[in-house]
Amino acid sequence: MKEVILCKYGEIVLKGANRSSFEASLTRELRARAALYGKFRITTAQSTVYIEPENEDCDLDGMTEAACRVFGIVGVSRAAVCEKSMESILTTVKEYLPEKLFGVRTFKADAKRSDKRFPLSSPQIAAEVGGAILETVPGIRVDIHNPEVTVRVEIRDSAAYVHAGQLRGAGGMPYKSAGRGMLLLSGGIDSPVAGYMMAKRGLEIEALHFESFPYTSEQAREKVFTLAEKVCAYTGKMYIHVISLTHIQEELRDRCEEDYFTLLLRIFMMTLAERCARGYHCGAIVTGESLAQVASQTLEAISVTDSVVDMPVFRPLIGMDKEEIVRIARMIDTFETSILPFEDCCTVFTPRHPRTRPEKEKVMRELAKVNFEGLCEEAFAGMTTVKRSIYPEQK
Ligand code: ATP
Ligand code: MG
Buried b vs exposed e over 331-346: b needs ≥16 C-beta within 10 Å? Predict the structure, then answer.
């Protein structure tokens, strides 16, 4: 019996004339993942991507799991393929489903007939399939309102497909279908979640991390690379740029009023982020800021840091509270790494009373006490880049 993986589109189905370009992004991502699990044929038809193994060596379990992390797909099903006749469908149901439904107590049978030439109606197909399951799966019963598993038969143009339930896909829009953004990636809880959320909207993510060696450690840097790797489970790969803020922080500490320190540092960070973003053809900056979470995230502080950049700054967490952010961090498996206790450059020389309602003129007067341009040039010149990837040849 031939088994395939069916991936159902999410929001792409709403697209009009430009739908094919979204489909191309989606299949490109799936093809790249599939190469890790064997030789698969990938085609699209009727708002579904078909992933067919081309030989016995294909790892269907691995591919199914990977497909669940590809943005743009809302549902993933393993399905048996058969001829479009009721006889063949029932034979397949009886052969394929008992193993899949082992230990399942309740089910519902459902049919979808996109090929309207098929002689039976959807309810008639569902009734026959339900009967065949009751005959062959011991102890199972029907529960149409709250079934443990919904068995579905789909009569499509190409063939009939029988599947025992659908796994939830990652949703969103295909990766790299919405331009590229520079994510400010710290070792905290928030920024990896922010990167994941924008990647889910189709934004290709590059990361920029600021460190402050020797005030921050090698382990702190490794932790950030590990976080990037976790996000790569969804994005495939990611470049991470690292810029040292050590000299900038020392200058700010020595020359500027302490209360303004955090805000001045953020002005440097945003300025360097914009340069880095432009250098790598990113149209936006992404941060993990959430309104009022800390002193630098008040409306007034954000207005000041926003005003020094001339490109959109995406803050997908702006209206979320910590609990909601943590829930996503756990789901994408970054939480446990984020809470490892290594210092961040933002926690070096932290002022005792940071300004929460800064006046821009006063901030700019403080900034004028250091050689802003020279320090930016120097920091930028020392930038290094690494790559993280789930694809072995690209490590
Ligand atoms: P996070 O949990 O993401 O570290 P946070 O609540 O600690 O966020 P801040 O330290 O004020 O908040 O940082 C706000 C945002 O600024 C972060 O979400 C991140 O996008 C960026 N940022 C902070 N520190 C760094 C850093 N060392 N390198 C790169 N970006 C940073
Ligand atoms: Mg932080």
Answer: ebebbebbeeeeebbb
Check residue 110 and report its DSSP letter: E
- Residue 15, CB-side half-sphere exposure with 13 Å CA sphere: 17
Q: Which ligand is nearest to the CA of 242?
A: 1
| pLDDT confidence of residue 395 | 47
List the single range of 46-50, 251-255, 292-296, 369-373 with lowest mean pLDDT. 292-296
Distance of CA 154 to the CA centre of its chain: 29
Q: Note residues around ion ligand 2 (Cβ under 5 angstroms).
A: 186, 188, 344
Give me the pLDDT at residue 158, please: 87
Mean pLDDT, the chain, whole residue set: 94
CA of 316 from ligand 1 middle (Å) equals 13
345 lines ligand 1 (CB under 6 A): yes
For residue 242, the tally of other CB atoms under 10 A from its CB is 19
State the residue for tokens 């199972």: 140
Q: Which ligand is nearest to the CA of 191?
A: 1
